[in-house]
Specification:
Length: 520
């Protein structure tokens, strides 16, 4: 049983790209002879994981895979490239490097020559001092020698400056040629893998081979492009794919999965959680300690990770497929693969939270009509004036509402002023903290603008978690009163402003606590 000297091509037909690796499938039709034979297929990526290699034969007659393994061959590169087989860019790099080495040697010789001429000039000046001191003056000879030394130093100095200038030009040109070569060509791989397949066939005939394995150096992340046109919005879902596996994926069926095969599947260890009770002291019974704390309201999601963020899939594995065959070269660069696109009606409002920012942002809401879950990722925002920036899209289930911020509006501005007063009232010395928040909303419109613009203002009100502290909105002092206050303590006003209009919104609320409350 011998191995065929020429390997059989084994192209990639399908790829399932995971968060940090890829599952590669290959298919080829083999012309098998009767009996046991060993086949050599490839080349394949040297990064293929051996233990995940799986081969399967399908044929009208009995055919079995006896053994499948990956064999890697290391071919070291030579010290110098061959001028006959190299590209024009590589020959240019080789010529520039040779010229740079020669210039560096010439520069070193000039430095040595100038150093020698400097010592010669010092010796000549010392001889002039000694001769003049002893009365032996030879002015004509001294003048000739000094002129000759100065002339040689000037000539060699000019040559050194020219060499330095040429070295700078060579460095810049060499950098440009190397960048062009990195874009135009690739280095030959030193480590190449092949599949050695041992099969047994009852009779001679064709058989289909399906082979699959995992490989590293491949990943994907979702990306989107939102185009706002009046009351309609078009959302394009893409997948950004990187791969540096050592072989190109040409016209493959691409599947994108959020499965995390590298994570451990062992259940967490259970540890004891002891709860102890103790009696409160008399001082603790007399007082109630409270504190103001900030809490971010939001939905539960995966814990953040350092580095490249993972794919937020809502805790359930999601699988997406490219609608057409895809080609992804093995260059390590980002390649966008279109997945889906839909156009739907959208509602828009101008919202502002003055406590966080004085800017008024255009917020667009629309339903997810893509037919699949939208994974969290960056969004390129495009509206009537063109590209307006980049935002982020949170995980959204099919049919749910999506919120996108399309940037701030320069003609709307909100200024916030807050005041606080503290007082004790009643026989029980109940503490009352009164806070007054004034929001000054202005619209700076260009000449010729018409129509009102509604701004949704949101202001925070504390929410009490203990009965000893009460929070009350003094609606009689508000101007105007909030249109709604939700369970999270967010008060909202919808303010309509004409061109050049101004409006002031006043919110007054008070925190009332009994005398035994401490920390307010």
């Amino acid at each position: 049983m011998s191995t065929a000297p020429k390997p059989i091509a084994l192209p990639v037909t399908a790829v399932t790209c995971l968060e940090d690796r890829a599952h590669v499938e290959r298919a080829v039709t083999l012309d098998l002879a009767a009996g046991v034979q060993r086949l050599r297929l490839g080349p394949v990526s040297a990064l293929a994981v051996d233990r995940t290699l799986h081969a399967e034969l399908t044929a009208d007659h009995a055919a079995t895979v006896l053994d499948a393994r990956i064999v890697r061959t290391w071919t070291p590169r030579g010290p110098l490239p061959s001028a006959d087989e190299d590209s024009a860019l590589r020959r240019r790099v080789h010529a520039l490097e040779e010229e740079r080495v020669a210039l560096e040697q010439h520069r070193d010789r000039l430095h040595t020559r100038l150093d020698l001429l400097g010592r010669l000039a010092a010796d000549l000046l010392r001889e002039i001092r000694e001769g003049a001191g002893s009365g032996e003056a030879d002015a004509p000879r001294w003048a000739r020698e000094l002129d000759r030394v100065d002339a040689e130093r000037d000539a060699h100095g000019e040559q050194l400056r020219a060499a330095q200038a040429r070295l700078t030009e060579l460095g810049a040109e060499l950098g440009e040629v190397e960048r062009a070569m990195a874009l135009a060509g690739e280095e030959p791989a030193e480590l190449v893998g092949h599949i050695e397949l041992t099969v047994e066939a009852a009779v001679a005939g064709p058989a289909g081979l399906r082979l699959s394995h995992l490989t590293a150096c491949a990943l994907w992340r979702p990306a989107y492009r939102a185009v706002l046109d009046g009351d309609s919005l078009t959302l394009e879902s893409d997948a950004v794919v990187w791969q540096r596996t050592g072989e190109d994926w040409t016209d493959v069926r691409l599947t994108l999965s959020t499965a995390r095969s590298a994570l451990a599947t062992d259940p967490p260890r259970l540890v004891e959680d002891r709860l102890t009770l103790k009696d409160r002291t008399a001082a603790e019974r007399r007082t109630v300690d409270v504190e103001l704390r900030e809490e971010e309201t939001g939905d539960l999601g995966p814990a953040p990770v350092l580095g490249l963020p993972g794919v937020d899939d809502g805790g359930e594995t999601r699988v997406l497929s490219a609608p057409a065959p895809v080609s992804v070269p093995s260059d390590g660069r980002a390649h966008r693969v279109p997945l889906s696109s839909f156009t739907t009606a959208a509602t828009s409002e101008y919202a502002c939270s003055p406590e966080l920012s004085p800017l008024v942002t255009q917020v667009v809401r629309f339903g997810n009509r893509s037919g699949h879950a939208l994974l969290a990722g960056p969004v390129d925002l495009v509206r009537g004036s063109g590209f307006s920036g980049r935002g982020s899209l949170d995980f959204t289930t099919p049919g749910a509402t999506v919120e996108l911020a399309f940037g701030s509006c320069d003609d709307l501005r909100v200024v916030r002023r807050a005041e606080e007063s503290r007082d004790s009232v009643g026989i029980t010395q109940r503490t009352v903290v009164t806070r007054t928040v004034r929001l000054h909303v202005s619209r700076f419109s260009a000449p010729g603008e018409h129509g009102e613009r509604t701004v949704a203002l949101r202001e925070r009100i504390p929410v009490s978690e203990v009965s000893a502290v009460e929070v009350r909105v003094r609606k009689e002092s508000c101007s105007p009163a909030p249109e709604a206050v939700d369970a999270e303590g967010i008060a909202r006003w919808d303010i309509a402003l004409p061109p050049g209009g101004r409006r002031t919104v006043t919110l007054v609320y008070e925190l009332s606590a009994s005398a035994k409350v401490a920390g307010l």
